[in-house]
Recover the amino acids of this structure.
């Protein structure tokens, strides 16, 4: 029996019985041609440029740079917050962010963020103002001399006990 082509909407089918390799070779060629015709766009012919590979490679390179920029921007966030708020402990916040960056320890970054966001009350200024007021009151009463004037230390004012060390192990 001879080979016959039967056409279907799905594709051509080779029908018939024959002995030998000629019929099998014809069938393989027709299947290869059908497969090439229905191949997706990302399968390239031999010797052509693989566009999907180049597209994915550029995407990965740009994504790595974008993620690196985002990571470094996120690490600099506490320092930027402290700089814009004119924070008094900006150096400590900067050191904590650098420690977090180099050690990959998130505790330092969280501590820097808390220091940058939370405004701690200023305890030194009121205490300094109280000390200055007490000094002014004492000076007005004559009980307190000016602390900026000091008498120079002379050899006559130094007693022999002052020149000797109490315990040599203390040094």
């Amino acid at each position: 029996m001879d080979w016959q082509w039967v056409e279907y909407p799905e594709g051509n089918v080779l029908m018939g019985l024959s002995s030998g390799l000629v019929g099998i070779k014809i069938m393989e060629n027709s299947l290869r041609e059908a497969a090439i015709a229905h191949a997706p766009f990302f399968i390239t012919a031999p010797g052509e440029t693989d566009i999907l590979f180049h597209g994915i490679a550029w995407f990965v390179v740009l994504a790595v740079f974008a993620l690196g920029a985002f990571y470094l921007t996120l690490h600099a966030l506490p320092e930027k917050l402290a700089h814009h708020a004119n924070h008094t402990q900006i150096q400590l916040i900067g050191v904590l962010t650098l420690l977090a960056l180099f050690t990959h320890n998130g505790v330092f970054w969280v501590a820097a963020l808390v220091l940058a966001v939370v405004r701690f009350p200023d305890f030194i200024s009121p205490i300094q103002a109280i000390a200055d007021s007490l000094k002014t009151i004492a000076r007005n009463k004559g009980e307190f001399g000016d602390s900026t004037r000091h008498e120079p230390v002379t050899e006559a004012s130094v007693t022999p006990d002052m020149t000797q060390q109490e315990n040599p192990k203390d040094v």
Summary: The longest helix spans residues 51-75. The longest strand covers residues 4-8.
